[in-house]
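Fumarylacetoacetate hydrolase family protein
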Amino acid sequence: MSTLAQPAGPFALGTFSTPGGAPFPGLLARERVLDLSRTLPWAPSDVRAVVERWDEALPLLHGLAADDALDRLPLEGLRVHAPLEPRQIFQSGANYRQHVIDLEVAHRSPDDPRTVEEARAETAAIMDRRAAEDLPYVFIGLPSTIAGPYDDVVLPAWAEQPDWELELAAVIARPTYRVSVEEALDHVAGYTIANDLTDRATVFRRDMKAIGTDWLRCKNAPGFTPLGPWLVPAGSIADPGDLRVTLKLNGDTMQDESTKDMLFGVARLVSYISHTSRLLPGDLVLTGSPAGNGLHWGRLLRDGDVMEGSITGLGVQRTRCVGESA
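Tokens:
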């Protein structure tokens, strides 16, 4: 696990525990972990408490990462939890050009007179116009969906079509309200990996279609957002708009796309959200998922499946699906 999971840059942050011990905020460097609750002056109890003082913490973290005299624990043998617990989760939908095209074709009516090629071409033109002229589509999720990067994912008995959606997640560094696109990335502490699971069967209400989407039901089951393994500082990621997002299911590659395919990049998403809501330190901005979800392949998640998700420089998460008894 440790070799594949090494992040970009000199260090990353995470939440760890020893066997039988309580979780603690840690600095990972060279496959060894420093307990930040014992080494930072304000003794943070968790990673969010580090992010809440990000401007003060960042130079200290660089110094700690370079100090080989400090007592560290080997990564091997530690349990890795979700890197932090956000107060708020903002989720971007329909944000990858090819993904939206695939979904539009998959969901089109049997009575649609267009060929597949015509439907794809028409949707592609709409997406290009949307990226140039329109606003992002963002909804909110619950922190109770957060799970660790190696935890089992329980598939609820009611979920008929559970699906994967691997995403780049930005972690907010400071209170952020009404910032411009040009200022937005200055408010990002770093990045991590999120798998934003969705039950496709309950995305749209069956009892009254005019109500629209039901994000509570389809996305907010406990553990439906495996997060991590690491929080990698923004300074270690040269360009969040040029990262490879890859998800493998039982070893087979299902998603493999660059964040270049995003319609709205991290800066536009953060700026847009901040003009409605006040983002807080540690909040997550999920940036959407690329093409290659289960609906596209006609293969949804089931008991025993193993998902392996990676993003350039951010490590690897592996989660096993466990079906819940009816």
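Residues 12-81 form one domain.
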